[in-house]
Amino acid sequence: MSERLTIAIPFHGRRDYLEAAVASVLAQDHADWRLLVIDDSDTDQGIEDWLRALDDERIAYHRNPRNLGMVPTWNLCLDRATGELVTLLHDDDLLLPGYASLVLELAAAHPRAAAVCCGASIIDADGKPAFSLADAVKPFYRPRGPEPLVVEGEPGLRAIMAGNFIMCPTLCYRRAVLGNRRFAPNWKQVQDLDFTSRLLLDGDVIVCSRTQAYAYRRHVGGATALQSESRLRFDEEFALFDRVAERARGLGWERAARVAGRKSTVRLHLLYRALRETLHLRLGAALGWLRYLVRHR
Predict the structure, then answer these.
(1) What is d(CA 241, CA 257) in angstroms, rounded to the nearest whole number?
(2) Which end of the chain is more exposed for a tag (fewer CB within 10 A), N or C?
(3) Which residues contact 239 (CB under 8 A, 6 or more apart)?
(4) Distance separating alpha carbons of residues 148 and 140, to the nearest angstrom
(5) What is the pTM of this model?
(6) Residue 134's domain is classified under what CATH number?
(7) In total, how many domains does the chain have?
(8) Residue 154's pLDDT is what?
(9) Is the bond into 143 cis (omega within 30 degrees of 0)?
(10) Please, which pLDDT band fits residue 6 given cuts at 50, 70 and 90?
């Protein structure tokens, strides 16, 4: 099959969410895609038989012989993709109908881009529109510039270190430019920001459209929510920002290094969590977040 776009779904959990994700792929207004579902769930949920019953030759399925975990499965999606472009659609998210058309158009207009991305709406566990403060502030960090925005070099790295305005699940990667580069398996939460940072540090280009063509699901069972509560997310963010600052400094990108070293958005997020706990009269939890922040000054 000679499709231009592979949409790969690394599946780890709920079949009902996966069914909705697959339906969103089938509803695309552009047919030049192949869907690859890689099943990394703990139990066999009959996914292969269900996909086969859809009777669409564009759909392929692979089940890992053992549970690999999130990042290795993401990398397997990149390895098994066959299209010029590949998107990793999270198994609890949705593509809006114009996603395929948008990323194909962006990639054609920007042949140097290692990745293109779009805006996203936020939905809750039931698929209804939801508000997320973290996502609401992302557009304010986006640098001023033309639409779509070309993110590259020291200014691009400085921008995402000041505030990561890229909705990483929306990214569509160009396989020929990625080469053998993959998500780093030592991360559990910041692997996507690490990846985009490395692309920019390597001299690559990311093109970002404001158009909303993706629906990102925020819910208490999501990996981001669980790892934020365990503080793993913040441990990794502090470590990643230090690593980016070191590498930027080695390239002579001093302004980007300073911005990364300040870790301003991480600290603001921690202060927000402490304030939220205080407003709910959970003073012990608030104090815990503040102590954590002080330890990482």
Answers:
(1) 9
(2) C
(3) none
(4) 16
(5) 0.92
(6) 3.90.550.10
(7) 2
(8) 97
(9) no
(10) very high
User: At 115, is the secondary structure helix, strand, or coil?
Assistant: strand
10 within 8 A of 23, measured Cβ to Cβ: no
Residue 111 neighbours by CB under 8 Å, 6+ apart? none
β-strands 85-88, 113-123 pairing: unpaired
**Cβ atoms 194, 74 nearer than 8 A:** no
Give the range of the structural domain holding residue 157, as residue numbers without chain letter: 5-227
Output phi, psi for 34, to 5 deg.
-130, 135
Distance in angstroms (rounded) separating the CA atoms of residues 196 and 160: 9
Distance CA 55, CA 293 (A): 53
Strands 5-11 and 172-174: unpaired
Specify the residue for token string 């552009």: 30
Q: Report d(CA 114, CA 162) in Å as an integer.
A: 21
Structural contact between residues 251 and 217, judged by C-beta atoms closer than 8 angstroms: no
Per-residue model confidence (pLDDT) at position 227: 53
Q: Is 208 helix (H, G, I), strand (E, B) or coil?
A: strand
**Per-residue pLDDT tens for 51-100?**
999 999 999 999 999 999 999 999 999 999 999 999 999 999 999 999 99
* Residue 104, token pair as written in the block: 């194909």
Residues composing the chain: 297
Q: Which tokens hold the place of 218?
A: 């925020």
For residues 253 and 189, membership in a common domain is answered with: no
Residues 212, 269 within the same domain = no
Q: What is the pLDDT of residues 169-181, one digit of tens each?
A: 999 999 999 999 9
Number of H helices, E strands in the chain: 14, 9
